[in-house]
Write a structure and sequence with these properties.
alpha/beta; about 240 residues; 11 strands; about 20% strand; putative 2-phosphosulfolactate phosphatase; single chain
Length: about 240
């Protein structure tokens, strides 16, 4: 068996190890939130769900986007830079995005699943290897069935680098980061304007292995959440951040 790449609408019946990729920008943003001290991040499908989650759990902060734009009532846009600058020590967040969180929710039949981006690429590869349940399925979230020009090239670059790490091959980090900047997805994100996409968001997303943790998907009474897991830690405990 070998790894494969699929789109979000091909997830039905997919089990085993699943890596849901969204580098621009959902799971880069989530990683920087953990880097800023966030304790946990819950994932939801709709804007209204995120706002209801905030209302039901005082102190929770909402981050994410709808059609690329920060929804009214959200504390943060889908911006790695915004979360990087925030003081989130001990905070709980809820995240809703148009692609990344949808991919995680769609991976309901996975035996184990991780949310991934370039900043936690090698840690994700190590977590998949440690799980010992076979080659992963990579979910390329940046594709939309009604928009053939959304190729998910940014996510495909990321999935390919994670797979190189899993196989012990050279990462080609600099080339991948440079290619990320040239993708249509990067240019579209920047075109949203600084209120929704910070000018340095793409640069932050291109920092390969900036963090030394993977983000595993955990099912809990409150819903789906991300848990930062150390590169060599199979217990699910929090781990260090590479500065």
């Amino acid at each position: 068996m070998t790894e494969r790449q699929i789109t979000r609408w091909e997830l039905e019946g997919v089990s085993g190890a699943v890596v849901v990729v969204d580098v621009l920008r959902a799971f880069t943003t989530a990683a920087y939130a953990f880097g800023a001290g966030a304790e946990t991040i819950y994932l939801v499908s709709e804007v209204e769900e995120a706002l209801s989650f905030k209302d039901e759990h005082p102190g929770v902060l909402a981050m994410g986007e709808s059609h690329g734009l920060r929804p009214v009532g959200f504390d943060f846009s889908n911006s790695p830079a915004a979360l990087h600058r925030a003081d989130l020590v001990g905070r709980t967040l809820v995240q809703r995005t148009s692609s990344g969180t949808q991919g995680v929710i769609g991976a309901a039949e996975a035996d184990r699943a991780w949310a991934a981006s370039l900043v936690c690429a090698s840690a994700t590869a190590a977590a998949v290897t440690a799980a010992a349940i076979g080659p992963p399925t990579y979910v390329i979230t940046g594709c939309f069935p009604d928009a053939p020009d959304t190729t998910g090239q940014d996510d495909r670059l990321t999935a390919a680098l994670i797979e190189r790490s899993r196989r012990g091959q050279p990462l080609d980090s600099a080339a991948t980061s440079a290619a990320l900047h040239e993708t249509l997805e990067a240019k579209r994100s920047l075109a949203l304007g600084p209120e929704h996409c910070d000018p340095i968001d793409i640069a932050l997303a291109g920092r390969v292995d900036h963090f030394d943790f993977a983000m595993e998907v955990v099912r809990s009474k409150r819903g789906l959440r991300l848990q930062p897991v150390g590169r060599h830690d199979e217990t699910g405990s929090a781990c260090s951040v590479v500065r």
